[in-house]
Write a structure and sequence with these properties.
The protein has 180 residues and is an alpha+beta fold. It contains eight helices and four strands.
Length: 180
């Protein structure tokens, strides 16, 4: 249910941002605001208190937006989200918004875990490989080093999992050996 609401907020913002030619600007600003909300538990707690009036929440969010120096569209959106008691959902709304922007641009984000940091050549090769898997979409890698992996990579693109890790290969080999 909450994910549907997040997506609804993101869709409404995306439609307005596209109409005004500000989709990428709003993307950056929304990400900065979501990051701030995620880092500031006191702010989240204040905005989630039921006894704080809608007007006070809206004004507080507008003040945060002013300090972040965001465009009026982003400022108004943050104020509306806070006024409706959804400030704690801002990181999820921002993620849904990013998906809409990426989809419109023919991009897709891939969360990639590797045993060691990728070189520039490895990064380009992996992005090309994952692009073929996604039907030619441009792949933006979000990399993380996972010391638990023996080697290779594990990529998550939405609900798609591409396991090119040594761990995964060993598990598949073990499964084939057990099945005979």
């Amino acid at each position: 249910m909450a994910e549907r609401v997040d997506r609804s907020y993101a869709k409404a913002l995306f439609a307005l941002a596209q109409e005004r030619g500000q989709a990428d600007t709003v993307l950056r600003e929304l990400a900065a605001a979501a990051d701030l909300f995620a880092r500031e538990p006191e702010l989240r707690a204040f905005l989630s208190r039921p006894w704080v009036t809608t007007t006070v929440k809206r004004d507080a969010a507008a003040e945060v937006a002013a300090r972040l120096e965001v465009a009026p569209l982003t400022r108004d959106f943050l104020a509306r989200v806070a006024a409706h008691g959804r400030a704690e959902r801002l990181p999820s709304i921002a993620a849904a918004y990013r998906e809409l922007v990426d989809d419109a641009a023919g991009r897709v984000s891939a969360r990639v875990r590797t045993a060691t940091p990728l070189t520039a050549d490895e990064r380009a090769a992996l992005a090309g490989r994952l692009s073929r898997v996604t039907g030619g979409k441009q792949v933006v890698l979000e990399e993380a080093v996972d010391g638990a992996l023996l080697g290779g990579f594990v990529a998550e693109i939405g609900s798609l999992l591409v396991d090119g890790s040594l761990d995964g290969q060993l598990a598949r080999l073990r499964e084939r050996l057990v099945k005979g």
